[in-house]
Amino acid sequence: MYFETKRSIERNYIYTQSDENLSFIGHVHNSYEFITVLEGELECTVYQNSFNLKPGKAMLVLPNHVHGYKTENYSRSFLCVFSSDYVTEFYNEIKNGSWGGGNGVYALFDYTDQGEMSLLNNKKTNRFLLSAVLYGICGRAYDNMAKHVDTGKDGELAIKLLYYIQQNYDKVINLKRISAEMGYNYTYLSNMFNKIFGCGFSKFVNRFKANNAAELLRTTNMSMVQISNVCGFESIRSFNEQFKLCYGVTPSDYRAYRGRK
User: Fold this and answer.
1) Dihedral (CA of 220, 221, 222, 227) sign
2) CATH no. of 152-260
3) Residue 39 pairs with which residues in a beta bridge?
4) In the chain, where are the structural domains located?
5) In what order do the strands lie in the sheet with 75-82?
6) Residues 6+ apart with CB under 8 A from 191
7) In 28, 116, 138, 211, which residue has its Cα 20 to 30 A from 234's Cα atom?
8) Ramachandran bin of 21, using left for φ above 0, alpha for ψ from -120 to 50, beta for the remaining angles
9) What is the arithmetic mean of pLDDT over 121-133?
10) How is 39-96 classified by DSSP, letter by letter?
């Protein structure tokens, strides 16, 4: 999964993907994200809350909510990211309604409609029909909306840090520099980051770089040196080491394996 911040705020934006064994670190964007599990089991995290989605279950995450995925054994899933202008009335209801602006909100609900998934995945489906399908999904979510832990200032700060990482991961970044730029105490930022994401800042950044490198390995013919540079690794050696820590194989082996798949 590879989200581009600029694309996620476009009007009439929609993106779909089908996955086996989806795993992706905590991330954030300005769009809605709908995911349903078709086979197996998928661990989903929204801020500090984790739960397992099984076949026939789905989740809707609101814009600007930190969320991630992890497959322990096997999962097959369908995911759709879409901009709020497809569901304007729903967006305004959540924004202005009794959920306090949608802060700390997600929804879990039953979902098995293969026909709707086909429509969402078809680039020829017109935007009116897309909107109808997405309103239907949001309607199911509306009846199952659940407010979890109040994200408060830590949640807002976590989002700022994520956007910073997504916009600067191709450079050398560290938390001490960021804390100085943002005017926060380094220890406070470090503890907050560990609490929200369950790992240290440096480890998270390296995982984010590795995830983006994996996408390029799967979808492009870029050389290892090019991918290493584009993803902000300091050297090929660092690229190989960090990638293997995340995926258990070298970048070359990963590309060869995914190619055979």
Assistant:
1) positive
2) 1.10.10.60
3) 76
4) 7-147, 152-260
5) 14-20, 75-82, 32-40, 57-61, 105-110, 145-147
6) none
7) 28
8) left
9) 96
10) EE-EEEEETTEEEEE-TTEEEEE-TT--EEEE-SS-EEEEEEEE-GGGGHHHHHHHHH
- Look over the chain and give the mean of its residue pLDDT values, rounded to a whole number: 85
Q: How does pLDDT run across 233-258, given as a tens digit for each residue? A: 989 999 999 999 888 899 999 998 76
215 residue type, one letter: E
pLDDT of residue 137 exceeding 90: yes
- Name the CATH code of domain 7-147 (choices 3.30.365.10, 3.10.50.40, 2.60.120.810, 3.50.50.60): 2.60.120.810
Other C-beta atoms lying within 10 Å of the C-beta of residue 116: 19
- Which residues are CB-neighbours of 204 under 8 A, at least 6 positions away? 25, 26, 165, 193, 197
Are 211 and 246 within 8 A, CB to CB? yes
The residue among 66 and 175 whose pLDDT is bigger is 175
In three-state secondary structure terms, 108 is strand
Cα–Cα distance list, 87 to 61, 83, 94, 184, 197 (Å): 14, 8, 11, 37, 30
Q: What is the pTM of this model?
A: 0.73
> Where does 122-250 have alpha helices with state H?
127-142, 152-168, 175-182, 186-197, 201-219, 224-230, 236-247
